[in-house]
Write a structure and sequence with these properties.
The chain is α/β, with parallel strands linked by helices. It has nine helices and twelve strands. It binds adenosine-5'-triphosphate (ATP) and magnesium ion. It holds the Pfam family ABC_tran.
């Protein structure tokens, strides 16, 4: 045995049904350490279901999943210590200020110097000026950034971001994208789910497309593009966009 660190996430044959609805029908993928992995799929494809299983909120019916080397079914406490989860809907407390939210989470996670950690995160996420204001007065992008900042407390090895920019305006999305890029640059492994092709294109080192219960393809943007022949327009080679690849695999909207 070598003591090489295991991949951040390993998923094999994952299945999950809600009553008769077979949502996951054998999902396989692996995420190396570091970088940003995007799980892409339409509404209802099962992205949140995968994230819930990986973060031990939900049990799979079959298959195995390991996060940071720990089995989600049998080593739940170790998995939970290795991760943080930012859900599809922001989980910040509106009555508190941004700084108070951060200090609260830092206390709950028993990290040392909660105030210093809070100030550092406010700075990293460009929220220093707004830090003393109640979150109720924040824009959607500021809330999302605060939400992501909260998820960093305690330095988790793997961060799950479930649709981090759904419902945000273009400016706020760009702010959140920058925050996510900064996270990955700091060495954290990020798994994000998205239904936005441009988000995956902008952010992800690797992209997996979840469709009808399985991973259809998994690779870098360039690898996914190579699945389609380049469209020739006169002398200019037009690269297929991720949207072209996605729609050719998943089919056009009905
Ligand atoms: N607790 C539940 N009970 C019954 N059905 C559920 C439950 N949770 C999810 N589903 C169904 O399972 C399917 C997958 O849901 P899931 O939330 O994982 O999709 P998603 O890819 O995250 O979608 P979205 O992009 O809309 O967030 C959907 O058809 C959904 O209605
Ligand atoms: Mg979802």
């Amino acid at each position: 045995m070598t003591n090489r660190r295991p991949p951040a996430i390993q998923v094999h044959g994952l299945e999950k049904s809600y009553k008769e609805l077979r949502v996951l029908r054998g999902v396989d993928f692996e995420v190396a350490r570091g970088g940003i992995f995007a799980l892409l799929g339409s509404n209802g494809a099962g992205k949140t279901t995968v994230v819930k299983i990986l973060s031990t909120l939900l049990k799979a019916d079959a298959g195995t999943a390991r996060v940071n080397g720990f089995d989600v079914a049998t080593q739940g406490a170790d998995v939970r210590e290795s991760i943080s989860l930012t859900g599809q809907f922001a989980a910040v407390d509106e009555i508190l200020s941004g700084r108070e939210n951060l200090v609260l989470v830092a206390r709950l996670r028993h990290v040392r110097n909660p105030g210093g950690i809070a100030d550092d995160l406010l700075r990293r996420f460009s929220l220093t000026d707004a830090g003393g204001r109640r979150v109720a007065t924040y824009s959607g992008g500021m809330r999302r950034r605060l939400d992501i900042a909260m998820s960093l407390i305690g330095d988790p090895a793997v961060i799950f971001l479930d649709e981090p920019t759904t419902g945000l305006d273009p400016q706020a999305r760009i702010e959140v994208w920058q925050a996510v890029k900064d996270l990955a640059a700091g060495g954290t492994t990020v798994l994000l789910t998205t239904q936005y092709l441009d988000e995956a294109e902008q952010l992800a080192d690797r992209i997996a497309i979840l469709h009808e219960g399985r991973i259809l393809v998994d690779g870098t943007l360039d690898e996914l593009r190579r699945l389609l022949p380049p469209a020739k327009v006169e002398y200019v080679e037009k690269q297929p966009t991720l949207e072209d690849v996605f729609l050719s695999l998943v089919g056009t909207k009905s």
